[in-house]
Design brief:
The chain has two domains: 166 residues, Rossmann fold; 84 residues, no CATH class. It has ten helices and ten strands. Strands 1-2-4-3-5-6 form a six-stranded mixed sheet. A two-stranded antiparallel ribbon has the order 7-8. The N and C termini lie far apart (61 Å). The relative contact order is 0.12.
């Protein structure tokens, strides 16, 4: 026979779970009922950096122009899609509350990705004490972007916040290094800090579970690295769902080279042994130790240059 206390406990727990599910359903309905295009205008611009490279940027501005708003920005290697007039995201901003209260929401393709010009580098190294406009990094790109936004986007109040999770979190962290005076808040979440220890290269051991997404970060864009609005990379087809057995059968990592030999993203072509076209795969192979390449790209090493945001 169950005790009254236990019955009371399970009854309370059941009610909490029902209430939680009901609240979640209400939230999902509320978000579904909120149409971004009814409350925001969308504009796509190419913002010129100090070295002349232009970064594609999407700006969602509240239709209510009776007041000024802060700017909330995410810089990402994963695309600021959807592109094109009349094409809107279903949800914008870090969360539904900031979306609904009204903020200027900005997404930017980082240098070398999607519709942005330039050459892409994974966790681009920070350049301290820059001496020319040709010396650029994610800190300078963020600074130049914020400078353009606060001077060109209507109805902004001169205050900028940045946010991001995972890789976009890395760019949010980077924004605090030699930060623009208008940057007032940064929210990096679960971000990468050093590729030698994070994700792909755990203390020098290539993490096999990341094999299938390596091409996402190392496939060169077609047409001599020109901006593109559709995915130019493909993921390897290993012909099985049993990845553990696949890697046992494959043997050493050099036997995976054939997956990174491509003339285009979807047209494999033969290469001399050991030569691959994926620049990130090549870096992983050629830098097995914690050498200058990985050390220069770690964000932890440069946080002494991070600004204390007002």
């Amino acid at each position: 026979m169950k005790s009254p206390i236990r019955i009371l406990f399970y009854t309370a727990l059941t009610l909490v779970m029902i209430s939680s599910c009901t609240q979640k359903e209400k939230t999902e309905v509320a978000v579904a009922d909120f149409l971004v295009q009814e409350h925001y205008n969308k504009k796509e611009v190419d913002i010129e950096m100090r070295d002349g490279v232009k970064l594609h940027t999407t700006i969602y501005s509240p239709k209510d122009t009776s007041k000024e708003y802060p700017i909330l920005m995410q810089r990402t290697p994963y695309s600021s899609r959807p592109y094109g007039d009349g094409e809107f995201r279903k949800k914008i901003g870090p969360n539904e509350h900031l979306m609904k209260e009204g903020n200027i929401i900005v997404y930017q393709d980082v240098r070398g990705r999607w519709l942005s010009e330039g050459y892409y580098e994974n966790m681009r190294a920070y350049i301290p004490n820059k001496t020319s406009n040709d010396q650029v990094d994610e800190s300078s790109d963020t600074y130049d972007t914020i400078e353009w936004l606060v001077n060109n986007v209507e109805n902004n109040n001169g205050k900028v916040g940045v946010w991001g999770i995972s890789y976009p979190g890395f760019y949010a962290t980077y924004a605090t290094v030699d930060a623009h005076p208008a940057l007032k808040a940064a929210s990096p979440q679960a971000c990468i800090g050093d590729f030698f220890f994070d994700d792909f290269h755990h203390n020098g051991a290539y993490l096999l579970s990341y094999f299938k997404v390596t091409s996402l970060f190392g496939t060169p864009r077609p047409n001599n690295d020109q901006p593109i609005d559709t995915a130019w990379y493909t993921f390897p087809d290993i012909q099985t769902k049993d990845q553990y057995q696949f890697f046992l059968d494959t043997g050493p990592l050099k036997n995976l080279n054939t997956f990174f030999e491509y003339e285009t993203a979807d047209t494999p072509t033969l290469r001399p042994e050991g030569v691959t076209d994926d620049f990130f795969w090549n870096e992983l192979k050629e830098h097995p130790n914690y050498d200058a390449l990985w050390q220069s790209r770690g964000i932890f090493q440069v946080l002494n240059n991070a600004s204390t945001l007002p």
